[in-house]
Write a structure and sequence with these properties.
By secondary structure, the chain is of the alpha+beta class. It is built from 3 helices and 7 strands. InterPro entries: AH_C (IPR053844).
């Protein structure tokens, strides 16, 4: 891990079935996350194949205007998940750890 970072305020942040977080560029929330320095081979061979089907790799904007790779909610998944109630908007928190702490 390089550091904790915050995204620009342009995302929605969701809990997917209470199991994992997902951000989507369709809102105005800033999301807390962690930046890692990883070889692309590790991303390709280990991390991406292990991600839930609802997520994909995308490029997000950080608070300081720089860009970073991140796992984001697939555009095609937003409406179906909202309709089934499988996602909960936690943009007001913008922090997965805080969400887990509150859900206890």
């Amino acid at each position: 891990m390089v550091c904790r970072a915050r995204s620009a305020a342009r995302y929605r942040y969701f809990s997917v079935r209470g199991k994992f977080p997902a951000m989507h560029e369709s809102g105005s929330a800033s999301v807390v996350g962690e930046l890692y320095d990883l070889p692309l081979k590790v991303l390709r061979d280990h991390l991406v194949p292990a991600e839930p089907a609802e997520l994909e790799i995308g490029v997000i904007e950080l608070e300081d205007g720089s860009a970073a790779l991140a796992t984001v909610l697939r555009d095609a998944m937003v409406d179906p998940l909202l309709q089934t109630g499988d996602i909960r908007d936690i943009s007001y928190l913008g922090d997965w750890r805080e969400f887990l702490h509150r859900e206890g």
